């Protein structure tokens, strides 16, 4: 698979995942299930690490949308970087899996222990 197509898949995933998570959160909020909410919060942090950018609130209109769009852009960049490192690991040398995998595993470990 060519490099640009491979990276495009990762970038699109970085865009699509937060949108789907946002839709699922709206459904979970309607159900009022605390257990489901706690579990999905961990899944959200694992799949959408830039979600923390959405948390600040303000009385100014449109701020939530701006933070969401900023978080989407950051998530696309994050997934693109992961895609580049993964592609390098597949095509060049397996050491790239460790270069990208260790920080990612540490980040996920930190999120799961919040």
In one word, what is the shape?
A: globular
User: If you compute it from the alpha carbons, what radius of gyration comes out, rounded to the nearest whole angstrom?
Assistant: 16 Å
Nearest-integer average pLDDT: 85
N-end to C-end Cα span: 38 Å
Query: What's the main sheet like?
Result: none
What kind of assembly state do the chains in view correspond to? single chain
Helix/strand/pairing category? mainly alpha
Helix content: over 70%
SSE order: HHHH
- The tally of domains stands at 1
Number of helices: 4
Total DSSP E strands: 0
Strand portion: under 5%
Describe, in plain words, how this protein is organized in 3D.
This protein has 114 residues and is mainly alpha-helical. The chain contains four helices and no strands. It has helices spanning 3-31, 34-47, 63-91, 95-112. α1 packs antiparallel against α2 (34-47) and α1 (3-31) crosses α3 (63-91). The termini are far apart.
List the main descriptive attributes of the protein structure presented here.
114 residues; 79% helix; 0% strand; mainly alpha
Topology of helices and strands:
Blueprint: H1 3-31, H2 34-47, H3 63-91, H4 95-112
Helix pairs in contact: 1-2, 1-3, 3-4
Short account of what is shown:
This protein is mainly α.
């Amino acid at each position: 698979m060519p490099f640009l197509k491979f990276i495009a898949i990762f970038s699109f995933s970085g865009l699509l995942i937060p949108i789907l998570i946002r839709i699922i959160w709206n459904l979970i909020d309607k159900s009022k299930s605390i257990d489901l909410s706690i579990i999905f919060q961990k899944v959200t942090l694992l799949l959408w690490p830039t979600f923390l950018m959405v948390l600040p609130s303000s009385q100014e209109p449109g701020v939530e949308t701006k933070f969401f769009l900023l978080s989407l852009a950051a998530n696309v960049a994050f997934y693109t970087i992961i895609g580049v490192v993964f592609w390098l690991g597949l095509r060049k040398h397996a050491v790239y899996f460790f270069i990208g995998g260790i920080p990612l595993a540490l980040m996920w470990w930190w999120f799961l222990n919040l």
